[in-house]
Design a protein that fits this description.
With about 150 residues, the protein is mainly α. Helices cover about 55% and strands about 0% of the residues. It has one domain: Four Helix Bundle (Hemerythrin (Met), subunit A). It contains four helices and no strands. The longest helix has about 35 residues. It binds zinc ion.
Protein backbone atom coordinates (compact mmCIF):
# COMPACT_ATOMS: atom_id res chain seq x y z
CA UNK A 1 0.00 0.00 0.00
CA UNK A 2 2.78 2.41 0.86
CA UNK A 3 4.99 2.53 -2.12
CA UNK A 4 8.36 3.52 -0.84
CA UNK A 5 9.94 2.96 -4.25
CA UNK A 6 7.49 5.34 -5.83
CA UNK A 7 8.24 7.95 -3.20
CA UNK A 8 11.97 7.60 -3.66
CA UNK A 9 11.55 7.96 -7.39
CA UNK A 10 9.39 11.00 -6.90
CA UNK A 11 11.88 12.55 -4.52
CA UNK A 12 14.68 12.00 -7.03
CA UNK A 13 12.56 13.31 -9.87
CA UNK A 14 11.84 16.48 -7.93
CA UNK A 15 15.48 16.88 -7.01
CA UNK A 16 16.71 16.50 -10.56
CA UNK A 17 13.99 18.81 -11.89
CA UNK A 18 15.13 21.29 -9.24
CA UNK A 19 18.73 21.07 -10.40
CA UNK A 20 17.64 21.47 -13.99
CA UNK A 21 15.68 24.59 -13.11
CA UNK A 22 18.57 26.04 -11.13
CA UNK A 23 20.85 25.52 -14.11
CA UNK A 24 18.25 27.08 -16.36
CA UNK A 25 17.87 30.05 -14.05
CA UNK A 26 21.61 30.56 -13.98
CA UNK A 27 21.65 30.55 -17.76
CA UNK A 28 18.79 33.05 -17.84
CA UNK A 29 20.53 35.30 -15.37
CA UNK A 30 23.72 35.14 -17.36
CA UNK A 31 21.98 36.13 -20.56
CA UNK A 32 20.04 38.79 -18.67
CA UNK A 33 23.35 40.32 -17.76
CA UNK A 34 23.56 41.20 -21.41
CA UNK A 35 26.32 40.74 -23.89
CA UNK A 36 29.00 43.35 -23.89
CA UNK A 37 31.46 44.67 -26.37
CA UNK A 38 31.22 45.19 -30.06
CA UNK A 39 29.30 47.79 -31.93
CA UNK A 40 25.55 47.40 -31.93
CA UNK A 41 22.95 49.07 -34.04
CA UNK A 42 19.38 49.80 -33.05
CA UNK A 43 18.03 46.58 -34.48
CA UNK A 44 20.36 44.59 -32.26
CA UNK A 45 19.36 46.62 -29.27
CA UNK A 46 15.67 46.06 -29.97
CA UNK A 47 16.21 42.36 -30.38
CA UNK A 48 18.14 42.20 -27.14
CA UNK A 49 15.45 43.98 -25.26
CA UNK A 50 12.83 41.55 -26.57
CA UNK A 51 14.81 38.52 -25.61
CA UNK A 52 15.56 39.95 -22.19
CA UNK A 53 11.88 40.32 -21.60
CA UNK A 54 11.27 36.73 -22.63
CA UNK A 55 14.14 35.54 -20.50
CA UNK A 56 12.93 37.35 -17.46
CA UNK A 57 9.44 35.90 -17.90
CA UNK A 58 10.95 32.44 -18.18
CA UNK A 59 13.09 33.07 -15.14
CA UNK A 60 10.05 34.14 -13.21
CA UNK A 61 8.13 31.04 -14.22
CA UNK A 62 11.11 28.83 -13.43
CA UNK A 63 11.56 30.33 -10.01
CA UNK A 64 7.88 29.82 -9.27
CA UNK A 65 8.24 26.19 -10.24
CA UNK A 66 11.36 25.99 -8.12
CA UNK A 67 9.44 27.31 -5.14
CA UNK A 68 6.74 24.69 -5.72
CA UNK A 69 9.33 21.95 -5.91
CA UNK A 70 11.04 23.06 -2.71
CA UNK A 71 7.63 23.14 -1.12
CA UNK A 72 6.89 19.58 -2.27
CA UNK A 73 10.28 18.34 -1.07
CA UNK A 74 9.64 19.78 2.37
CA UNK A 75 6.21 18.19 2.42
CA UNK A 76 7.71 14.86 1.45
CA UNK A 77 10.17 15.22 4.27
CA UNK A 78 7.52 16.23 6.77
CA UNK A 79 5.22 13.43 5.74
CA UNK A 80 2.49 15.80 4.62
CA UNK A 81 3.03 15.13 0.95
CA UNK A 82 -0.18 14.13 -0.78
CA UNK A 83 -2.32 16.01 1.74
CA UNK A 84 -4.29 18.95 0.42
CA UNK A 85 -3.29 22.21 2.04
CA UNK A 86 -6.72 23.60 1.44
CA UNK A 87 -9.06 21.06 2.99
CA UNK A 88 -6.68 18.57 4.59
CA UNK A 89 -7.98 15.79 2.36
CA UNK A 90 -5.96 13.52 0.17
CA UNK A 91 -4.73 14.61 -3.22
CA UNK A 92 -5.48 11.88 -5.72
CA UNK A 93 -2.60 9.81 -7.04
CA UNK A 94 -3.69 10.71 -10.55
CA UNK A 95 -3.26 14.39 -9.83
CA UNK A 96 0.07 13.84 -8.11
CA UNK A 97 1.29 11.89 -11.10
CA UNK A 98 0.37 14.72 -13.40
CA UNK A 99 1.54 17.46 -11.05
CA UNK A 100 4.02 15.97 -8.58
CA UNK A 101 4.35 19.19 -6.62
CA UNK A 102 0.73 20.16 -6.36
CA UNK A 103 -0.25 21.02 -2.81
CA UNK A 104 -3.98 21.30 -3.38
CA UNK A 105 -6.56 18.74 -4.34
CA UNK A 106 -8.42 19.36 -7.58
CA UNK A 107 -11.46 20.80 -5.79
CA UNK A 108 -9.45 23.32 -3.80
CA UNK A 109 -7.41 24.19 -6.86
CA UNK A 110 -10.61 24.99 -8.75
CA UNK A 111 -11.96 27.05 -5.87
CA UNK A 112 -8.71 28.91 -5.68
CA UNK A 113 -8.81 29.69 -9.38
CA UNK A 114 -12.41 30.86 -9.10
CA UNK A 115 -11.87 33.02 -6.04
CA UNK A 116 -8.98 35.47 -6.04
CA UNK A 117 -9.07 35.81 -2.26
CA UNK A 118 -9.34 32.09 -1.59
CA UNK A 119 -7.67 30.83 1.56
CA UNK A 120 -7.02 27.31 2.80
CA UNK A 121 -9.86 26.05 4.97
CA UNK A 122 -8.23 23.45 7.11
CA UNK A 123 -4.54 24.01 7.38
CA UNK A 124 -3.60 27.55 8.18
CA UNK A 125 -0.77 28.86 6.09
CA UNK A 126 1.62 26.74 8.06
CA UNK A 127 3.76 26.00 5.05
CA UNK A 128 3.37 29.27 3.29
CA UNK A 129 6.44 30.81 4.83
CA UNK A 130 8.53 29.86 1.91
CA UNK A 131 11.36 32.02 3.12
CA UNK A 132 11.83 29.44 5.85
CA UNK A 133 12.00 26.40 3.65
CA UNK A 134 14.95 24.40 4.90
CA UNK A 135 17.61 23.30 2.52
CA UNK A 136 17.35 19.65 1.68
CA UNK A 137 20.02 17.23 0.69
CA UNK A 138 19.94 13.59 -0.30
CA UNK A 139 20.95 12.72 3.25
CA UNK A 140 17.56 13.85 4.45
CA UNK A 141 15.78 11.11 2.58
CA UNK A 142 15.99 8.41 5.27
CA UNK A 143 14.12 10.70 7.66
CA UNK A 144 11.11 11.09 5.45
CA UNK A 145 8.16 9.71 7.31
CA UNK A 146 6.63 7.72 4.51
CA UNK A 147 4.30 5.93 6.90
CA UNK A 148 2.13 9.04 6.86
CA UNK A 149 1.99 9.31 3.12
CA UNK A 150 -1.04 7.73 1.54
CA UNK A 151 -1.97 7.18 -2.02
CA UNK A 152 -5.32 6.40 -3.52
CA UNK A 153 -4.17 3.38 -5.34
ZN1 LIG B 1 -8.57 20.25 -0.91
Amino acid sequence: MIRRDALLRLYNTLLSRREELLRQLNTDMTSLGGSSGGSRDEADAAFDSDSEEINSTLAERDSEELTSIDHALVRLKQGTYGTCEGCGGKISAKRLNALPYSSLCIDCQREKEDQPDWEPKALASRYSQLGNVPTLSGDDMPHINIARVQFDS
